[in-house]
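hey m, so remember when u said the tokens were messed up on ur end? i reran from scratch. heres the input so u can diff it against urs
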Amino acid sequence: MPEIVSGRSAGAVRPCVRFDGPFEPLSDEVRDASLDEIVEGMPPGDPWLFAYGSLMWDRAVLRFREREAALLRGYRREFCVWTVLARGSPEMPGLSLGLEPGGSCRGIAFRIARHEARAALDPVWRREMHTGCYEPRWTVARLRRRTVNALTFVARRGHVQHAAGLAPEAVAFHIARARGSRGSCRDYLADTLSSLEASGARDRRLERLLARVDARLTVEDYGRVSRRFREGTRGHDVSQNYAALLGAIEAEPPYSILDLGCGPGRDLVWFRSRGHEAVGLDGAPEFVEMARAHSGCEVLHQDFLALDLPPGRFDGVFANASLFHVPSRELPRVLGELHAALKTGGVLFCSNPRGNDEEGLHGNRYNCFHDLETWRGYLTAANFAELDHYYRPPGRPRREQPWLATVWRKD
């Protein structure tokens, strides 16, 4: 459980699970005065507004003449502003995007008619400048063929809502759990990435953050149902999968086997009972505790997206119903890390629910349902050679075989 922190928590590296301010909305007089100052300082020509967060897609408050993908240099996009209304609550504060000095940021620029600037910006001001946690600034944004003067909102350092210095895991914690009047923080992050993708841009840091958030949601969901999961899977017959892995390993037994996503430890017990050295790995602390107690094996507590495995350590990796939780954007890197952890000639076994490459959050778990050709493409790109594939459960028509099992050798 994270440390409980009340009141001002800017600069905290750990999560806080309560945020009481103190902060108050700006008065209409103060807010209007700040807008008047910005309008009076407008550079020549039609002004542009550089959007990097919700204004990219939630444009009901913005009246504009044209829009274009844009690049802003000198600032980077960060989740650095606490929110307890739109995307969070005092009990579980969320995080909003802000601009911090340094780096660059891709977003969307909107042109506003100069004679309409005051009226067009007023509803934006009432939303973005509710508490004064942003500082409006005139900047220069790069469009495809020209540069323009663009107004944007920079996180105001020193404001009580400024959340600078949060560790990545703390940011992921809040985004995964916080929800407010306008929805969840997780959806806010996903919508930002979707808007960037629609404009032809990417933010790989935010992509990695979303993967981290979804991994946290998935692990926490498994933790909530860990005992029920253990009882529900205790009697599953996966002997076909055991045989596929062990039959493909060419080294002399006993084998060193990594059970990736070992859950409560059922398969660790089986491998160990056959004389092999079995090592488990799981992201859910509840499963790690269960697996250690049940199997007596070494069990690593690691996130699939942050593996730390010794090179050339294992004869085989048993990934039974686990790798389908890895987002496709992260899968090449994860497969590369598993490849490195295998001995030369080592074997990777995978069993995943199949589909037509659907991907996304289903309930509280992130799932990818690849077809054979897509899955084959990822594995061959990671320098694995295919040995075999089959569908499960055995002995049924293909339409009643939702699981795709594949066996691969490290080239």
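this time it looks ok to me. The chain has two domains: 28-202, 237-410. if urs says something different then somethings off w ur setup not the seq
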